Amino acid sequence: MKKENKNETPVIDENEVIKRKKEKIIQLKELGVNSYANGVAPDTTAENILALYKDEPMEEIKTPGGRAKHSIAGRVVALRVMGKLAFARIKDESGSLQVAFTRDTMGEDAYKIFKKSCDVGDIIWVKGEVFVTRTEELTLLIDEFTLLTKSIRPLPEKFHGLTDKELRYRQRYLDLIMNDDVKKSFITRTKIVKFIRNFMDNNGFLEVETPMLHPLVSGAAAKPFETHHNALDMKLVLRIAPELNLKRLLVGGMGKVYEINRNFRNEGISIKHNPEFTMMEFYWPYATYEDMMKFTENMIAELAEGITGSTDVIYQEKTIDFSAPWKRMTVEESIIAAGVATEDDLKDADTLKEIAKKVGIPADKMEKMSRFKVMMELFDEVVEPTLWNPTFITKYPSEVSPLARRSEDDPEYTDRYELFMAGREIANAFSELNDPAIQLAVFKEQAEAKQAGDDEAFDMDVDYIRALEYAMPPAAGQGIGIDRLVMLLVDAPSIRDVILFPHMRPE
Questions:
Q1: Which helix (H) or strand (E) holds 481?
Q2: Which one in 120, 125, 128, 355 has a CA-CA gap of 20 to 30 Å to 425?
Q3: What is the pTM of this model?
Q4: Are 279 and 482 in contact (CB under 8 A)?
Q5: Homologous superfamily of 178-326+389-497 in CATH?
Q6: CATH 2.40.50.140 fits 14-155, yes or no
Q7: For the segment 400-412, what is each residue's pLDDT rounded down to a tens digit?
């Protein structure tokens, strides 16, 4: 410990603390105390004890004696030793509970061992009976104690906790110890996935698993991560989407299928993006994208109410109204509604480029872009950030929708929508393209784009064309970003707050 001057708080050298803790382990071993004991398990949790006695008359449990004994195990997060009496707070997976150690209850030798061995941060096992302290707090009076795991590193100072965001993401284990709200968010994430899974199962969908390693790039416009399979001496990519394999299952007659799993995209990291993320993709034979809109609307509205208790959910101090029906607009209608272009403007590529430049889209980026691609750039820049309540944006250009079914009214557009909430895309869906001749032509266009330097273009998948030639039933499909959906329901500002171990730059 060092002190710069008499007015400053002492600064504890963490290396010195670690050194002392390691020395203590050696000293305890000489006393016959194993700092890493095993084979001792609790019979209940802190939460269960609090629930068991919450309705007991306080007068009846003010003093210990004659009641059942309970054992719990967890981390010591607070400790106060006062001679013959000590109080600690033990935190387990369910919550925390105050426990009391006394020389009279434990015996002199056991109490000495407790005082010599127990520190904040340690994981311990204790057994005793409940009583209520003078401050009316339910407490476990301990008569048996075992040190299970010695903590070598000091926990952050309790009043300030762990507030450094980068440290929290890098050392999520420490974040979970110190911040109960973080733990609650990840428990809620699990409940969200479970709810979705049950909803899909109850609606007749079959959960399946498809490969993570693909020989070809397919399923979305994204740059892949590449690897090499030594035994087969071939390049493989981590999947950017499971789409084509799931649609192969439709060809095989598997019916309504879904998969909740990881996708990988070699793109930037931001509050909305992580290179490894969780998505649910599902496919519904004999349905259209309009059926999918109604289904999605019902599922997410029920999810919001089931998780939060209401269809009005507060996100970043602003309400999202999840109640159905949700707003629907075409891409072009949404741009016109934003007031940046007219219907006539949208028909001319040069006019669109001038408008796009005015809103900050670089001219060189658009130099070789078609009218439709500039229109989508304009949508991303001007419209997407304004879509707060759930909104379906429909009628995407065919040029930017290589796997979607062309509209029978106008083949330049597709039967596709994207779902937006809180200014970000949550889902992408469309009636599926199942004409092998059109799909082959699209793959050829994608192959040419890749040859010209587009590293987000698809590969030519000859086997998928062959599968379509065996006939895939008309169907609708959708991908939902689970991480982004969780963000909205737990009020998390960044995707890193809902991924246990987000990707970070090296330390």
A1: strand 475-481
A2: 355
A3: 0.91
A4: yes
A5: Bira Bifunctional Protein; Domain 2 (3.30.930.10)
A6: yes
A7: 998 899 999 999 9
